Structures are given as structure tokens and as C-alpha cells.
Amino acid sequence: MKSVCLVVQNVYDIDSRLRRKAEALVSAGYSVDVLALAPTQRKGTYTLDSVNVYTVSLGKKRGSLPRYVFEYAAFFVWAFVRLFLLMRRRRYVVIDVNTLPDFLIFAALPARWMGAKLVLDMHEITPEFYMSKYGIAEDSWLVRFLRFQEKISFDCADHVITINEPIQGLLARRGLPSQKTTVVMNAADEGRFLPSSHAATVDDRSRAFVMVYHGTLTRIYGLDIAIEAFSMVHGQMPGSELWILGSGPEQSVLAGLARERGLTSKVKLVGQVPPADIPAWLNKCDVGILPIRRDVFLDFAFPNKLPEFIIMGKPVLMSRLRTIRHYFREEALSYFEPNNPADLANQMVRLYRDHGLRARLAARAKQDYAPIRWDVMRQRYVKLVDDLAGSTHPVAERSNATEMTAAGR
Question: Is the full-model pTM beyond 0.85?
Fold first, then answer.
């Protein structure tokens, strides 16, 4: 049995993208190891769904640039040593390194010299990430350095994964050869959203219209914009509510804003919900809402919550971002201009009043999502690893319709 190692500076248990990839490889017959951060409830080495997870208790207390540098450097050193020791015993055929940081790929160089192929999964675009997070100018020395580091990192890899076609195009303009890259999108595992999994108990009292957000509560996701928009039009939407599922640094800010706008009874900050219960909550809502702000980084975002709403057959209120428009036509999502509460408010009322429109949006979104669903991405990812590893696992043939993208929509 051939072995593959995935490396990520995150907690494996909660990293849905990495778990989907690792479990896809296990299903394809590979032995899979993961190097990751330790979750709070367990340390050291453990096995989760046939994946061997090796961890380091480093924490994740990012905020300032110095703290980022420290955590990146510490994890890099640990991964470098751990990979070297494991490679001597496990003889990995492929090592899949997941950003951030980009330079983590160099921790796998000794393994490459010992025969492993290196994949760099560029889950984020680092220069834009730092421009967005810290307000750094595009022409600054730091951004120029990050672009240099990005290029030498993807040059080092045998193959590069990007998470959507707009980012693939951006990296091509920075020197990434097209033949060296594959898009594996951040699609949701539809198995989690089968009808039989919707049995969790949630508040089922009578209500006319419920909008739901689920995820981390940070400023970039624009929940304050959603509350502001709702405050403008809730009088035109009798019985309507906004449910916000999740936790994060903005939780108290959002609660305060809801009080200020007189929406305490209408805006429900539910708190953290177990992942297994998410389908049940989504099953109870009428509309999903993703009011993400737009900036140089977020314009390339493809939130993994969007596929979850679509799989559940829910229409989505969605910021008009570049990557989303690349894959979904205007008639598939209820778009509004990012950072614009008034435009979002108008779309809320529009969906509230028109049940038929909600059904049409949900159906069209499913059509547009079909070519990029997880089953397609899983096959694409396993085929990439097979090709690099020289394996011959059977992968179902994809039809021309499945392989189509929504480019040009």
C-alpha cells in the first residue's frame, strides 16, 4: 500500500477541506498520514477515520505579524524534522503541503530528495491575504517579498493545487505554468447533507421567513451589514428572523448592534453549533445569507458555506464577488453589492415576497454547482495523486458536461 502525507498548519479535526482530501485518498487505497496542530482535547498521535494524525502543541494565537512569523517558523521546523524521520520509515510517494504559509513546501525538500513528489495546495493567496488583513499597500516591500516567496514556493513543487479558476489565472500571471496546476475547489461533502441526517432538534415554532448564516463571526463576513440591512426592512417582512450560527470575535459586537437596532427578538445569535447538526438548522431556514465584504483578497473568496446552502436546496443572498460570479450566473443567486446594506435589504424583501423566485434560484444554483461539486473534485484530486504516484486506481470517467466550467458567465 502506497503512503501519502498531508501537511497543514491547522487542527486537522476541524479542517474540512483537508479531511475531505485525506478521506478520499484512504477510500482510493492509500495509507494516509497528516502533520497538523494538536486539538485542545488530544495531543500527540491519533487515528481519525483511518487517517494517522501527528500533531504539535503550538496553538494558533495569530493577530500581529510577529506572532504569525513565530508560529510559521516553529511549525516549519517541527514539520521539517518530522517529515524527514517519517519519510525514512514510510517512504511517501506524495506529500501534499497546504498553505498558509507558502514556504512550508520547503519543509518537504528532504523527502523530495528521497523520492517523494511534492504538491503545494495554495488554499490562500498570501500577498492579497496580508494586504487585506493589515492594510498593506500593493507596492510595499513586504508585498513584493511575499510574491517572491510565493513564486519560489510554487516553483519548488512538482504540482500546484489552486482552489478556483480566478486564483489560477492570477497565479498564472505571476509565473505559474498552466500545465503545472489543477483546480480542486472547496466543495462540500454531500454525504453530510443526506435527508436522513436532518433529524437534529431545533426551534420549530411558527415563523414566516428565516434567513441563516453559519460560520465564524468575524468582520470580513459582513454580519453587521446583514443586521443593518434587516433593520431597514424588517417592518416589511412580518414574522421574519435572522439566525446567526457560530462564534468568533464579532459575537458581542453583533449582539450589541442588534440591541441598538431594536432587533433582539428577531436576530438570533445561536452560538456554536456542532457540525453534525448544521444540516438540520439549514433544513429549517428559507434563505441562506453570505454578506461577505469585498476587498483585494475577498473578491477571490469561495466560501464553503455556499455549497452547503445549495446542496440543501436553499436560495442564497450573496455578495457579488468576482469568483462567485465566475461560477454562478446572475439568475442563480440573489446577488447584492458588497458592503451595501441598502442593496442587501432590497434583496431580502424581494425573496421574502416571492416564493417562486426562491425556488427558481435554488434550482439554477444546483445546476451551476453540478460541475464543481465534491464528487467531481474528489475524482480530480485522487487522479492527480495517482498520476504523481504512478498508481492505477480506477477513477470514474467524467462526462463533458461534468468537466464544463462556468467561465464566461
Answer: yes
Q: In 3-state terms, what secondary structure has residue 25?
A: helix
CATH says 191-370 is which class? alpha beta
CB atoms within 10 A of CB 220: 16
- Contact criterion met (CB below 8 Å) for 337 and 343: yes
Residues of the chain with CATH 3.40.50.2000: 3-187+373-403, 191-370
Quickly count: other Cβ atoms within 10 Å of residue 110's Cβ: 16
Q: What is d(CA 172, CA 166) in angstroms, rounded to the nearest whole number?
A: 10
Q: Which helix (H) or strand (E) holds 244?
A: strand 240-245
Contacts of 312 (CB under 8 A, 6+ apart): 193, 279, 282, 283
Q: Is 318 helix (H, G, I), strand (E, B) or coil?
A: strand
Alpha carbon of residue 268 to chain centroid: 24
H helix intervals, 328-403: 341-353, 355-369, 374-389, 400-403
State the virtual CA torsion across 22, 299, 289, 162 in degrees, nearest 10. -10
- Residue holding cell 512538482? 158
16 Cβ contact partners less than 8 Å away, ≥ 6 residues apart: 188, 189, 275, 304
Q: Which of 113, 118, 94, 8 is nearest to 58 (CA)?
A: 8
Asked if 396 contacts 384 with a C-beta cutoff of 8 angstroms, the reply is no
- 235 three-state secondary structure: helix
CATH topology for 3-187+373-403 is Rossmann fold (3.40.50)
Listed residue (94, 41, 67) closest to 388, CA to CA: 94
Residues 396 and 249: their CA atoms lie apart, in Å, by 43
**If the chain, 409 residues long, is cut into consecutive pieces of 10 residues, what is the mean pLDDT of each piece?**
96 92 96 94 88 87 71 94 95 96 96 96 92 89 94 97 96 95 92 59 60 94 97 96 94 96 95 88 95 94 94 96 97 97 98 96 97 96 96 47 41
For residue 290, whether the previous peptide bond is cis, meaning omega lies within 30 degrees of 0, is no
Taking Cα atoms as reference points, which of 180, 209, 166 lies closest to residue 118? 180
